[in-house]
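[audit] Reproducing an earlier prediction to check determinism. Same input, same settings, fresh worker. If the tokens differ from the archived copy the diff job will pick it up downstream; this log only records the rerun itself.
[audit] input (249 residues):
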Amino acid sequence: MKRKEISKIVLKVSEGVFSSLVDLVLWNAFYLSEVGFASGSPARLGRAPFSASKNLKKFNYLTIKRAMYNAEHKGWIKNDLTLTKEGRKRLQGFLPEYFEKRKWDGNWYLVSYDIPEEKKRFREILRENLKRLGFGKLHASLWISPFNFLEEAEEIVEEYNLSIYVILAVSDKVGREESRILANKIWNLKEINNHYQELIKKAQKKKPEKMIFEYMSILSRDPQLPVELLPEDWQGEEAYLFFKKYLYK
């Protein structure tokens, strides 16, 4: 099985949460050892009777075994298939995290830039880092966040010598619209909330552990804004309570 083919299958079975079979194996090792199932062997990992490991049935045994060997060789799992400290760090770096406390000081933090075409590569680097920090795109070259990550943004700007092209600012008002309406437009909160609602309905009828990847996929798209900026019927917390016990700790 070719690497590209493996990656496509991994993305499909994990709802886009993982792109590497090694990382999917790490998740299954975590699920087996820490959510209440014994691991024991490669065959057990690939054939355990619960939804997380059922995903591995998409691959042949030798492909799984090779991925497990790579994970063990890199020091991410032990012989008994439990995660090492480094394996936990690796897995934690891929999984979305739910933040229970999100305070807002009422300000918007803005990054505006006009980077010339000959520095296109650095412009893309800045954009990717702004996304990583949780900024939302208001316009092509104007990004905002209700959280103060300007210091982190400034470090990136200085690292790539972009100071003359970038303006960092703080404002308690952006445009004429109410902040909650603005937030919904930028992060498409209504659509995310609809996905949460649909998932909760399914989780009430089925076993939540069978939909853990679907939940993590939605959570990865959720900007996790302060409550003041969320729709009044926001379902994110209720969804989190359904899946809390199955999330990586």
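[audit] rerun output stored. Observation attached for the diff report: Strands lie at 108-113, 136-139, 142-145, 166-171.
[audit] end
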